[in-house]
Amino acid sequence: MLSSSRDTTRILGSVIDHRGRWVAAAVVVVMAAGFAVSRLPAADPAVLPDQVAGFMRAKLAHSQNVLEGLTVEDFDLIDKGAQQLSLASEDASWQVLQTEDYARQSADFRRSCDSLRKAAKAKNLDGAALAWMEVTMKCVQCHKYVRDERAPRN
């Protein structure tokens, strides 16, 4: 049995410390969000699918920066990725629906990004990991909402 001041656990065949659980959970959530992003249809027939796909890829790159920052404890990278995600949420390409609920979800997403940035500035890895989970959940919830709103109704 391992004995140390850090709580250890076996994840994916390797021993990592307590913080690693947050990172492993974040990886799973990011993968699920990436799948949701890849399934999101174009917002407007006038908007070319390549433009939407490019915007989604940029959002994914910002998300990967946050995840990389979490895994290597690079708080500047976490902060930068969170800021880029927040700014992206104000871009016209982000506005795929014009509803109050969609606007509220976008505002909630920005608040979550702000919480992530605050944790990064405070060099609080556990707080940043928790905030990242919240940001990712906001992504998944919003993508589900958009899919539901666009689904054909009988």
Please give a structural write-up:
The protein has a single domain, classed as Up-down Bundle (Four Helix Bundle (Hemerythrin (Met), subunit A)), CATH 1.20.120. 69% of the residues lie in helices and 5% in strands. It has helices spanning 18-38, 49-72, 75-88, 100-121, 125-150, and strands spanning 8-11, 14-17. A hairpin with a 2-residue loop joins strand 1 and strand 2. The radius of gyration is 17 Å and the shape is elongated. It starts with 7 loop residues before the first strand and ends with a helix.
Write the layout of secondary structure elements.
Elements: E1 8-11, E2 14-17, H1 18-38, H2 49-72, H3 75-88, H4 100-121, H5 125-150
Antiparallel strand pairs: 1-2
In brief, what are we looking at here?
This protein is mainly alpha-helical and 154 residues long.
Task: Output the keywords.
154 residues, mainly alpha, two-stranded antiparallel sheet, disordered N terminus
Strand content: 5-15%
Mean pLDDT across the residues is 76
Number of helices: 5
Radius of gyration: 17 Å
Estimated helix fraction: 55-70%
| Uncertain residue segments | 1-16, 35-47
- Overall strand count: 2
Structural class: mainly alpha
What assembly state would you assign to the polypeptide chains in this entry? single chain
Through-space gap between termini: 59 Å
Question: Which CATH first-tier class would you pick?
Answer: Mainly Alpha
CATH architectural grouping: Up-down Bundle
* CATH H-tier superfamily: Oxygen-evolving enhancer protein 3 (PsbQ), four-helix up-down bundle
